[in-house]
Amino acid sequence: MTAPTHHTPSGKRPIVDGASDVSRKLVAPWVDWAARFTQGKWLLETGTYALTEGAIAAGCRFFGGYPITPATEIAENISKRLPQVGGYYVQAEDELAGMHMSAGASLGGLKAMTATSGPGYTLMHDAYGWAITNEIPLVVVDAMRVGPISGITGAPGQGEFYVARYCTHGGNFETIVLSPNSIQEIFWMAIDAFNLSERFRTPVTILTDQVVADMQEDLFLPEDYAMLADVVVPRRHNLAMPFFPVGSDAIDVPPNIVGQGTGVCVSTYTHTPEGYDIEEMEAQWDQTQRLVNKIRHHKPELLRYEAIGLEDADVIAVAYGATSRTVKTAVLEARRQGVRAGFLRLITLWPFPDELFSRDASYLVCELNYDGQLVREVMRAAPDKHKVHFMGKSAELHTVAEVQAGLTGISQAGRTPPLPHIWTEVR
């Protein structure tokens, strides 16, 4: 049997993978986009560059932010690109101000984005709450690095998995969080994130990491971003009541705009359909129904993931972001060695895709932290939490050999073997 090929645009050499007898699936809108848009140019570029170009292609015309490694190059790149397309770049005094500025620009009618890393991300929680409550479309990028606090500025981490879900105080909301694992993917994902923010009227977070942000890979860019018009959701303006369809789970409602005689109020408090403050339990109920159910009731439209060999797998390796790159290679190598291993890469992190964990198999969760975050959600969603195993690492990616040893150990002995600098305990 010949190995399957994955075709790339513009006649570039197809990638031929081993383990040819294994099923493969990538569920994401950019699978079709990449097949459709084949005229363009190839570059060797970084993740920060690709993200910037994706934002421009999506129609981003405002960026407010504060520099921080490894997200500084996003600000540098977009500060050059925005003036070229009639947009605006503002260097804020801190990350909180940057996100508030971006949310304000969105209320003024511009697609907007901000970017930071972990230490700055934690400063944005007040702005997140305001943007979520007032249903403001916005894209927020967190290029994660190892922590806690400043940690190692040039090393990757995955410590904001839960912070991205519970990104503000008070509860009563859902969030949309995506995570890329390649330079090409982060270009398309930027467009997808802007689309979702417009359709769901909410901030969408791209949770990337230092590796994907800084590394260089082949990047295909369409020759004219105008050709993407039929896949880019345009900014529309809601100019009439109700400004906030409380109690409704409807999506594709045009975002509100301040000005143009609308009279919309964007309060920080529980509000009426007009946006005015109100202190009544019924109003809180209706607002929460809206903020939660517009996402929960449309989860199938938000599901993005990559899977290999799940159908016959005895042990399934789970990862996201840069971690998934070495984990995927380890799974393919383990299969060549006779281990019935599967691979599951989460692209949509939140709302969490419980439905992907229905198979009664063992799971090996690999993530770049020692405390265990993603693993806890897998334990909650899987049929048997006692068959969920953890391999936590920090400051550098798991090696193929480490993951392969974990898969073999679970397959043969039901546990991961002790390995240097690998944390396996979850409490």
What does the model show?
With 427 residues, the protein is an alpha/beta fold. Helix content is 32%, strand content 21%. The protein has 13 helices and 18 strands. The chain has helices at residues 30-36, 47-58, 72-84, 95-107, 118-121, 125-133, 161-165, 183-200, 210-214, 281-296, 323-336, 374-381, 400-413; strands at residues 5-6, 15-16, 24-27, 40-46, 60-65, 88-91, 111-116, 138-146, 152-156, 176-178, 203-209, 216-222, 305-308, 315-319, 341-346, 348-350, 362-367, 388-392. The strands form four sheets. Strands 5, 6, 7, 8, 9, 10, 11 and 16 form an eight-stranded mixed beta sheet that branches. Helix 3 links the parallel strand 5 (60-65) and strand 6 (88-91). Residues 1-18 have low confidence and may be disordered.
Describe the structure in brief:
The protein is built from 13 helices and 18 strands.
Biggest sheet character: 8 strands, mixed
Q: What is the average of the pLDDT values?
A: 94
Oligomeric status of the shown chains?
single chain
Kindly state the percentage of residues in helix.
25-40%
Radius of gyration: 22 Å
Structural class: alpha/beta
The percentage of residues in β strands lies in: 15-25%
Q: Kindly state the number of beta strands.
A: 18
Number of helices: 13
Spatial separation of the terminal alpha carbons: 45 Å
| Uncertain stretches | 1-18
Spatial shape: globular
